[in-house]
Amino acid sequence: KLCATFLFYCFLVFFVAPSFQQCDPDETAPVAICENDFEVELDTDGMVLNVDQIDDGSDDLCGSVTLSINPTDLSCGDVNDVVDVVLTVTDEVGLVSMCTTEVTPRDDTAPEAVCVTALTLTLDGNGDASITAGELDDGSNDVCGVTLSASQTTFDCSDVGTNTVILTVDDPNGNSATCTTQVTIEQDDPPVAVCQDVTIQLDANGMATLTAEQVDNGSNGGPCGITTFSIDNSAFDCSNIAGPNTVTLTVTNNSGNTDTCTSDVIVEDNVDPDAQCAADFTIQLD
């Protein structure tokens, strides 16, 4: 029992008493210990650092400490730059120590590309139509902002139908993403069919053939022109000489719009008959 009392007395004299002497008064600054330098990825809102990310066990011999860091907020403007984050350690009597960790923000996350699913454009009177990349966008985003570009923004008659257009979304730090929109190009103006009456001649075999081009009299297909001409009857023979012979011309533009007109076809037979006589012969009077 005596030995135990002696050991406790020694502990007080050699260990506890010096601590009380150092802390009364407390003139020793706390010890600031910072984490090693590190990189951090920005999230969707940038990055807010907390003390625990910088502190690596700072303490004070005489009591508790208060920790703070500066700066706390990292933004897109800091990406790839070294930011000195200062940890300030303050003890109970106001003594201060500081240390610094170099933090490098990174942005390796691609933006989110969001496209409208489909878009329909109508060609103007010159056969042209255009869009902007913004018209294809349906909320593309990135924490550091985005720029938009489209694989095609102008269209003409050759694009009538459905076209796949790619929207590219880039952020300021070299990351990109894409999405697609189906852009349908239409030509609303119908063609105008213009006919003329036609006279055709039967050949020696009593046959005649009519073409759509003979019936057409300057039909107009609009800015994109006419794709096809067709008629409902092209073959005629002797039975058509008496008439009437009405032929319908159908014109179609490259959007599938159609118009019709009619033509009166006169069929003539102006080929002289081939008269063939029998050989000379003798007859006897009765």
What labels would you give this structure?
four-stranded mixed β-sheet, 36% strand, signal, Immunoglobulin-like, rod-shaped, HYR domain-containing protein, 286 residues, Ig-like_fold, mainly beta, 3 domains, single chain
Explain this structure to me?
- With 286 residues, the chain is mostly beta strands.
- The chain has 3 domains: 27-106, Sandwich (Immunoglobulin-like), CATH 2.60.40; 118-186, Immunoglobulin-like (Sandwich); 198-268, Immunoglobulin-like.
- Helices cover 12% and strands 36% of the residues.
- It has 4 helices and 18 strands.
- It has helices at 2-23, 51-54, 133-136, 212-215, and strands at 38-41, 47-48, 65-70, 73-74, 83-91, 96-106, 118-122, 129-130, 147-150, 154-155, 161-170, 176-186, 198-201, 207-209, 226-231, 235-237, 246-253, 258-268.
- The protein has a 4-stranded mixed β-sheet, with no helix packed on it. The protein has a 4-stranded mixed β-sheet with strand order 7-12-11-9. It has a 4-stranded mixed β-sheet with strand order 13-18-17-15.
- Strand 11 and strand 12 form a beta hairpin.
- The longest helix is centred in the N-terminal third of the chain and has 22 residues, at 2-23.
- It is rod-shaped and about 175 Å long.
- The model is unreliable at 12-20 (pLDDT under 50).
Question: What's a quick, concise take on this entry?
Answer:
With 286 residues, the chain is mainly β. The chain is built from four helices and 18 strands. Mean pLDDT is 90; it is low at 12-20.
Show the helix and strand layout.
Elements (H helix, E strand, L loop, with lengths): L1 H22 L14 E4 L5 E2 L2 H4 L10 E6 L2 E2 L8 E9 L4 E11 L11 E5 L6 E2 L2 H4 L10 E4 L3 E2 L5 E10 L5 E11 L11 E4 L5 E3 L2 H4 L10 E6 L3 E3 L8 E8 L4 E11 L18
Parallel strand pairs: 1-6, 7-12, 13-18
Antiparallel strand pairs: 2-4, 3-5, 5-6, 8-10, 9-11, 11-12, 14-16, 15-17, 17-18
